[in-house]
Amino acid sequence: MSANYKVKVNKDFEAILSENDISTTDIIKTPDSKFHIINDNQSYLSEILESDFNNKKYTVKVNSNTYEVDISNSLDMMISEMGFSIGASKQVNSIKSPMPGLIIDIQVEVGQTVKEDDYLLVLEAMKMENIITSPREGTIKSIAVTKGDAVDKGKLLIEFE
Protein backbone atom coordinates (compact mmCIF):
# COMPACT_ATOMS: atom_id res chain seq x y z
CA MET A 1 0.00 0.00 0.00
CA SER A 2 1.47 3.32 -1.01
CA ALA A 3 1.12 6.34 1.21
CA ASN A 4 -1.13 9.21 0.18
CA TYR A 5 -1.05 12.75 1.48
CA LYS A 6 -3.84 15.32 1.43
CA VAL A 7 -2.45 18.80 0.90
CA LYS A 8 -4.74 21.75 1.60
CA VAL A 9 -3.50 25.13 0.33
CA ASN A 10 -4.94 28.39 1.71
CA LYS A 11 -7.95 26.42 3.05
CA ASP A 12 -9.60 26.48 -0.38
CA PHE A 13 -7.65 24.05 -2.57
CA GLU A 14 -7.10 20.37 -1.82
CA ALA A 15 -5.06 17.74 -3.61
CA ILE A 16 -4.24 14.12 -2.87
CA LEU A 17 -0.58 13.31 -3.58
CA SER A 18 0.74 9.77 -3.81
CA GLU A 19 4.31 8.64 -3.12
CA ASN A 20 4.70 8.37 -6.91
CA ASP A 21 3.68 12.03 -7.37
CA ILE A 22 6.27 13.07 -4.83
CA SER A 23 9.03 10.80 -6.14
CA THR A 24 8.71 12.21 -9.68
CA THR A 25 9.33 15.75 -8.39
CA ASP A 26 12.94 16.92 -8.23
CA ILE A 27 13.65 18.93 -5.09
CA ILE A 28 17.08 20.38 -4.40
CA LYS A 29 17.94 22.29 -1.24
CA THR A 30 20.06 25.34 -2.00
CA PRO A 31 22.77 26.66 0.33
CA ASP A 32 20.56 29.54 1.51
CA SER A 33 17.93 27.13 2.98
CA LYS A 34 15.62 27.52 0.03
CA PHE A 35 14.51 24.87 -2.42
CA HIS A 36 14.61 24.55 -6.17
CA ILE A 37 11.75 22.34 -7.41
CA ILE A 38 11.22 20.91 -10.88
CA ASN A 39 7.82 19.31 -11.55
CA ASP A 40 6.35 18.59 -15.01
CA ASN A 41 9.23 20.53 -16.61
CA GLN A 42 8.32 23.63 -14.57
CA SER A 43 10.86 25.27 -12.28
CA TYR A 44 9.88 26.74 -8.90
CA LEU A 45 11.87 28.52 -6.19
CA SER A 46 10.48 27.91 -2.73
CA GLU A 47 11.18 28.61 0.91
CA ILE A 48 9.53 27.46 4.13
CA LEU A 49 8.78 30.65 6.06
CA GLU A 50 7.05 29.09 9.10
CA SER A 51 6.50 25.53 10.21
CA ASP A 52 4.38 23.89 12.87
CA PHE A 53 5.62 20.33 12.50
CA ASN A 54 3.34 18.83 15.18
CA ASN A 55 0.17 20.19 13.53
CA LYS A 56 1.55 19.70 10.00
CA LYS A 57 0.97 23.35 9.05
CA TYR A 58 3.43 25.38 7.01
CA THR A 59 3.77 28.81 5.44
CA VAL A 60 5.56 28.39 2.13
CA LYS A 61 6.76 30.96 -0.37
CA VAL A 62 6.79 29.74 -3.99
CA ASN A 63 7.97 32.11 -6.76
CA SER A 64 7.14 35.22 -4.67
CA ASN A 65 3.66 33.95 -3.64
CA THR A 66 2.96 32.90 -0.05
CA TYR A 67 0.74 29.93 0.79
CA GLU A 68 -0.64 28.37 3.98
CA VAL A 69 -0.26 24.59 3.61
CA ASP A 70 -1.83 21.84 5.77
CA ILE A 71 -0.66 18.27 5.20
CA SER A 72 -2.52 15.11 6.26
CA ASN A 73 -1.05 11.63 5.93
CA SER A 74 -3.01 8.39 5.41
CA LEU A 75 -3.58 7.91 9.15
CA ASP A 76 -4.83 11.49 9.57
CA MET A 77 -7.26 10.99 6.68
CA MET A 78 -8.52 7.69 8.14
CA ILE A 79 -9.11 9.30 11.54
CA SER A 80 -11.00 12.16 9.87
CA GLU A 81 -13.16 9.72 7.85
CA MET A 82 -14.10 8.00 11.13
CA GLY A 83 -15.51 11.32 12.36
CA PHE A 84 -12.78 12.19 14.83
CA SER A 85 -10.84 15.43 14.92
CA ILE A 86 -7.07 15.32 14.75
CA GLY A 87 -5.44 17.08 17.67
CA ALA A 88 -8.70 18.42 18.98
CA SER A 89 -9.56 18.13 22.60
CA LYS A 90 -12.70 16.33 23.65
CA GLN A 91 -15.59 18.68 24.41
CA VAL A 92 -17.21 17.43 27.61
CA ASN A 93 -20.63 19.00 28.17
CA SER A 94 -21.68 17.15 31.31
CA ILE A 95 -20.21 15.40 34.31
CA LYS A 96 -21.80 12.22 35.60
CA SER A 97 -21.09 10.40 38.81
CA PRO A 98 -18.27 7.88 38.31
CA MET A 99 -19.60 5.75 41.19
CA PRO A 100 -22.42 5.64 43.73
CA GLY A 101 -21.87 7.96 46.66
CA LEU A 102 -22.88 11.01 48.65
CA ILE A 103 -22.38 14.64 47.58
CA ILE A 104 -20.64 16.28 50.53
CA ASP A 105 -19.55 19.61 49.01
CA ILE A 106 -20.33 21.76 45.94
CA GLN A 107 -17.93 24.59 45.13
CA VAL A 108 -19.57 26.09 42.01
CA GLU A 109 -22.79 27.91 41.11
CA VAL A 110 -24.89 28.09 37.94
CA GLY A 111 -23.45 30.74 35.61
CA GLN A 112 -19.97 30.53 37.11
CA THR A 113 -17.05 30.36 34.69
CA VAL A 114 -14.50 27.64 35.51
CA LYS A 115 -11.11 26.68 34.14
CA GLU A 116 -9.86 23.19 33.44
CA ASP A 117 -9.01 21.31 36.67
CA ASP A 118 -10.97 23.74 38.89
CA TYR A 119 -12.53 22.08 41.97
CA LEU A 120 -16.27 21.48 41.35
CA LEU A 121 -17.57 19.13 44.03
CA VAL A 122 -16.71 16.32 46.44
CA LEU A 123 -18.28 12.86 46.16
CA GLU A 124 -17.87 10.53 49.13
CA ALA A 125 -17.78 6.87 48.14
CA MET A 126 -16.64 3.88 50.25
CA LYS A 127 -15.51 6.26 53.02
CA MET A 128 -13.21 8.14 50.64
CA GLU A 129 -13.61 11.72 49.44
CA ASN A 130 -13.29 12.06 45.66
CA ILE A 131 -12.73 15.57 44.36
CA ILE A 132 -14.43 16.07 40.99
CA THR A 133 -12.62 18.69 38.89
CA SER A 134 -13.58 20.46 35.68
CA PRO A 135 -12.50 18.62 32.52
CA ARG A 136 -12.47 21.88 30.52
CA GLU A 137 -12.95 25.63 30.59
CA GLY A 138 -16.55 26.70 30.45
CA THR A 139 -19.62 28.08 32.16
CA ILE A 140 -21.77 26.01 34.51
CA LYS A 141 -25.21 25.59 32.88
CA SER A 142 -26.86 23.52 35.62
CA ILE A 143 -26.14 21.62 38.81
CA ALA A 144 -28.36 18.54 39.12
CA VAL A 145 -27.48 17.69 42.74
CA THR A 146 -27.36 19.38 46.12
CA LYS A 147 -25.17 18.86 49.15
CA GLY A 148 -26.26 15.68 50.97
CA ASP A 149 -27.74 13.94 47.89
CA ALA A 150 -27.07 10.24 47.43
CA VAL A 151 -26.21 9.52 43.78
CA ASP A 152 -25.96 6.38 41.68
CA LYS A 153 -23.22 5.70 39.15
CA GLY A 154 -23.95 7.62 35.95
CA LYS A 155 -26.18 10.25 37.60
CA LEU A 156 -25.88 13.69 36.02
CA LEU A 157 -24.02 16.05 38.36
CA ILE A 158 -23.11 19.17 36.36
CA GLU A 159 -23.77 20.46 32.82
CA PHE A 160 -21.70 23.01 30.91
CA GLU A 161 -23.01 25.62 28.45
Written description of the protein model:
There is one protein chain. With 161 residues, the protein is mainly β. The mean pLDDT is 87. It has a 7-stranded antiparallel β-sheet. It has a 4-stranded antiparallel β-sheet with strand order 8-15-13-10, with no helix packed on it. Strands 12-11-9-14 form a 4-stranded antiparallel β-sheet, with no helix packed on it. The chain contains 2 helices and 15 strands. It folds into 2 domains: 78 residues, no CATH class; 67 residues, RNA polymerase II/Efflux pump adaptor protein, barrel-sandwich hybrid domain (OB fold (Dihydrolipoamide Acetyltransferase, E2P), Beta Barrel), CATH 2.40.50.100. Helices cover 8% and strands 52% of the residues. 6% of the residues are buried. Strand 6 and strand 7 form a beta hairpin.
Draw up the topology in text:
Layout: E1 4-9, E2 13-18, H1 19-23, E3 26-29, E4 35-39, E5 42-52, E6 57-62, E7 65-72, H2 74-81, E8 94-96, E9 101-106, E10 113-114, E11 119-125, E12 128-133, E13 138-143, E14 150-151, E15 156-160
Antiparallel strand pairs: 1-2, 1-7, 3-4, 4-5, 5-6, 6-7, 8-15, 9-11, 9-14, 10-13, 11-12, 13-15
Organism: Aquimarina rubra
Protein name: Acetyl-CoA carboxylase biotin carboxyl carrier protein subunit
Domain Lipoyl-binding: 83-161
Features of this protein?
161 residues, mainly beta, OB fold (Dihydrolipoamide Acetyltransferase, E2P), 2 helices, 15 strands, Acetyl-CoA carboxylase biotin carboxyl carrier protein subunit, biotin, Biotin_lipoyl, Biotin_BS, Biotin_Carboxyl_Carrier/Decarb
